[in-house]
Design goal:
The protein is of the alpha/beta class. Helices cover 28% and strands 24% of the residues. Helix 3 runs parallel beside helix 4.
């Protein structure tokens, strides 16, 4: 039986136009929806798979404001059985402080007799691009850590994991307990069913308060890349444009002569 903790983060849905706050330290999410990163969606799926295969449990955790419960309920709707909200102002937390807050929850659960054998995270944060939390968390817990992992499974007390390396697929075997940072591409996240959503609404989300004062994110400011110039070439109007369209198709290799 393997009990898994999967860590997610509420981030702005940046599928539309991105703007920054006045101080340039965050994405202005006033007109954006919220979601989790693709890496974390895959981490949730792997957590549910490992828990189901071993008769264990999958718990979702996030650090953020009360509104982040929305993302926790999304994880509950696809198979997680419990959720923990570390209620705090996420903008005040850098990678080191986030890792410390998660480590405190893991240690408290272990002291209560409900340890997490495996902790999964996204490989990096979708909004800040931090790649550090998984490694920092493993260091605090004294556990082995893997990053850039696409798939994983547990047999007995050994974690079998695979990830893309510079020379192809890399295969790892690590003794539990362990920390793993997941990269998208190895599994397809499942969609929540109506039954799953109803169950998620009824599940009580545990709320805890961090004990340590964060030192700040250390972020100075973001910058947006300049807009990419775009040009439009008018090939013609009506039937007169047909020859130009044909020439363009040949030029692009869509059709052959």
């Amino acid at each position: 039986m393997v009990d898994v903790l999967v860590c997610i983060k509420r981030v702005p849905d940046v599928s539309g136009e991105i703007t920054l706050t006045e101080d340039g330290r965050a994405v202005d999410d006033g007109y954006l929806g919220h979601t989790v990163s693709s890496h974390e969606e895959c981490a949730v799926e792997l957590a549910v798979q490992v828990a189901n295969a071993t008769g264990g449990s999958a718990t979702a955790l996030t650090l953020g404001a009360a509104e982040a419960v929305e993302q926790l309920r999304d994880a509950l709707a696809v198979g997680c059985s419990a959720a923990v909200l570390v209620e705090a102002e996420a903008d005040r937390y850098g990678p080191a402080a986030v890792a410390a807050a998660i480590a405190d929850v893991v240690r408290r659960k272990e002291a209560d007799g409900t340890p997490y054998d495996l902790v999964l995270l996204g490989n990096d944060a979708a909004d800040t691009g931090d790649f550090q939390v998984g490694v920092r968390l493993a260091y605090r817990l004294g556990r082995p850590v893997l990053t850039g992992i696409s798939t994983c499974a547990v047999q007995d007390v050994t974690l079998h994991a695979e990830g893309a390396g510079p020379d192809g697929t890399e295969v790892f075997e690590v003794a539990l307990p362990a920390v793993v940072a997941v990269q998208e591409g190895g599994v397809a996240p499942r969609y929540p069913s109506i039954t799953g959503r109803m169950k998620a609404k009824r599940t009580t989300v545990e709320t805890v308060t961090p004990t340590a004062e964060p030192a700040g994110s250390g972020r100075v400011r973001y910058t947006l890349p300049p807009p990419q110039p775009s040009t439009v070439q008018v090939l013609g109007e009506g039937p007169d444009a047909a020859p130009a369209v044909v020439d363009l198709l040949f030029e692009l290799g869509v059709v052959s002569r």
